[in-house]
Specification:
By secondary structure, the protein is α/β, with parallel strands linked by helices. It contains four helices and 27 strands. A ten-stranded mixed beta sheet has the order 3-6-9-12-15-18-21-24-26-27. Strands 1-4-7-10-13-16-19-22-25 form a nine-stranded parallel beta sheet, with no helix packed on it. It has an eight-stranded parallel beta sheet with strand order 2-5-8-11-14-17-20-23, with no helix packed on it. A hairpin with a 4-residue loop joins strand 26 and strand 27. Helix 2 runs antiparallel to helix 3 and helix 3 packs antiparallel against helix 4. It is elongated, with a radius of gyration of 20 Å.
């Protein structure tokens, strides 16, 4: 399962069934879970912990030190969950002491070729990053988010669960849950209805979310006034409540 040309540091820990292809390099303080498959010419530096059943394709670079001038060689981590697909030429960096010292990736994500995830980012579960999508440092991407090709997300931005960021968007504000944004200077383009239907959201919930979207984006209200109306709508809708809580917690402000 380990090609003879692969270079494995003695301190690396490999679970049962791990496969490592030709000329890959596994550095010190790397832990790889069971049945993870690593193609040829992959470089993984530590401290990095990778879960089970991941597929990491050729020329990916994982766990390299952060591209941040504040970084001075401190011990920081990259944590990756289970069943992720990390395609060719992806780069995922470790964290910095200025945040939580970790870059964290959840489970069941697809990172297409040339994706970059910078230091201290947090990525949830079941996300899709299309080719060349890139995150600056300290970005949070919640569950079931889709990032289109060449989308770029500025430092400290957040994209809420089930959000959709279209191709080529340069995102400098937060995207509330369930919302779709497009254009280089991002604008809201309705709910991510296709994704929500695919994930089994019922018509009652969708109706509530449409009402919430109209309050935020279509009624010409100041945001503080829109939040008052959302509070009433959220009384009997957990989906609207999650949208409201996200907006209230936003530090960058939302795309609007």
């Amino acid at each position: 399962m380990i090609h003879p040309t692969a270079i494995i540091d003695p301190s690396a820990k490999l679970g049962a069934g791990v496969s490592i292809g030709p000329y890959s390099v596994i550095g010190a303080d790397v832990e790889i879970g069971e049945n993870t498959w690593i193609a040829s010419h992959v470089v993984i530096n530590g401290p990095t912990k990778i879960g089970c059943d991941n597929r990491i394709y050729q020329f990916a670079s994982l766990g390299e030190k952060p591209q941040d001038l504040k970084y001075k060689g401190e011990k920081t981590w990259l944590i990756i969950g289970d069943r992720n697909s990390i395609r060719e030429f992806c780069t995922i960096n470790r964290g910095t002491l200025q945040d939580n010292s970790q870059t964290c990736i959840g489970n069941d994500n697809l990172f297409m070729s040339y994706v970059h995830i910078a230091h201290d980012c947090v990525v949830g579960n079941h996300t899709v990053f299309a080719n060349n999508a890139s995150l600056s440092g300290h970005v949070v991407i919640e569950d079931y988010v889709v990032l289109g090709g060449f989308a770029g997300v500025l430092q400290t931005c957040r994209v809420g669960a089930h959000g959709f960021v279209s191709m080529g968007v340069h995102l400098d504000k937060d995207v509330p849950p369930f919302v779709k944004v497009a254009d280089v200077s991002p604008k809201p383009y309705g709910l991510n209805t296709v994704g929500l239907v695919r994930r089994g959201f019922d018509e009652v919930t969708l109706k509530k979310l449409r009402q919430a979207y109209r309050i935020i984006y279509r009624q010409g209200l100041l945001l503080k006034d829109a939040l008052v109306e959302l509070e009433m709508l959220a009384a009997d809708s957990s989906a609207v409540r999650s949208m409201l809580d996200f907006i209230v917690a936003s530090k960058r402000g939302i795309v609007r």
